[in-house]
Amino acid sequence: MLATNFSQCGAATPAALVRAERAVRAFTAGATSDGSAALAMLAPATAKVGQRFTVALEVEAGLQPVDGAAAYVNFDPQVLQVEEVTAGSKLGVELLQQVDNAVGTVDYAAATFQNFPTGSFALATVQFRALKPAAVTLLTLHRLAPRQSDATFGGRSVLGASQEVALSVAGPEGETHAPGCLGDCDGNGQVSVEELVEGVAIALGRAEPEHCRALDRNADGMVTIDEVLAAVDEGLRGCSAAATASQNGDAWP
Q1: Which residue has the higher pLDDT, 229 or 130?
Q2: Is 66 in contact with 154 (CB distance < 8 Å)?
Q3: Is the torsion defined by CA of 247, 78, 44, 107 positive or negative?
Q4: By three-state DSSP, how is residue 23 classified?
Q5: Which ranges in the chain are annotated with CATH 2.60.40.680?
Q6: Cis ω on the peptide bond leading into residue 14 (within 30° of 0)?
Q7: End-to-end CA distance of the chain
Q8: Residue 223 to residue 216: CA distance in whole angstroms
Q9: CA pair distance 40, 135, nearest whole angstrom
Q10: Coil, strand or helix: which one is 240?
Q11: Choice between 129 and 12, residue whose per-residue pLDDT is larger
Q12: Given pLDDT bands bounded at 50, 70 and 90, which one contains residue 230?
């Protein structure tokens, strides 16, 4: 696939091809980051069930030239579905476009061999459709290999920060799921056995915290056994009771 893409760029020089090849390797193998550029997602703060909306995958490079970028987006497939991915214009060689609406991933990568862009530009835009209400649903950029979001130049990563997006999905009459339910990964107002099992896996380092942000009670980017035990209590008492206790100022168990 990559060889086909490269051969279609008739004006590319051998040096440019080598630079692009190095950029692709950086996407899959990782590289030491200069931290000059950032990846961001521009999305609306709210949506309604059935509504289609667009999320822009943006490279914010400042004065740093960029010859390639990759965005590996994670989303909740029970809340959102991808309908279309459209390439940006600055990185003209599409290296990867893959959507999995069952798992909740969008993988996109592109490169250029000349006229390396700087400043802020769109890597791609993704059209989503909202499926069900959620008080908060997250779009995150995966940063670990092999799904490693990145921006590169000359075979070296120049990516520093990346940004996640939180949006609210309202129901037909404006309702959203009540917040405050620890361990309710899919936002359906209940804590299931499967979600608790996922929480244990995250706490033991066998899965990543972004698989269930609702377990990260103190928003420190980690899930602890104490947080999993608190989620077990919510599963036993019910989300509405636990959320009420939290709103009343009662301590978590």
Answers
A1: 130
A2: no
A3: positive
A4: helix
A5: 2-170
A6: no
A7: 53
A8: 5
A9: 22
A10: helix
A11: 129
A12: confident
Do 96 and 71 meet the contact criterion of CB atoms below 8 Å apart?
A: no
Residue closest to 55 by CA, chosen among 79, 73, 77: 73
Return the DSSP state at 247.
H
* Type of residue found at 236: L
Q: Which residue has the tokens 């006229």?
A: 115
Strand duo 156-162 + 33-42: pairing: parallel
Regarding the domain delimited by 2-170, which CATH topology (the fold level of the hierarchy) does it fall under?
Answer: Immunoglobulin-like (2.60.40)
What's the pLDDT tens digit per position in 169-215? 987 654 444 445 778 887 777 888 888 888 888 888 888 877 787 88
Burial class (CB in 10 A: 0-12, 13-18, 19+), 29: exposed
| 127-157 tens-digit pLDDT | 999 998 888 899 999 999 999 999 999 999 9
User: In the numeric block, which tokens belong to residue 185?
Assistant: 């990964």
Residue type, 157: S
DSSP 181: -
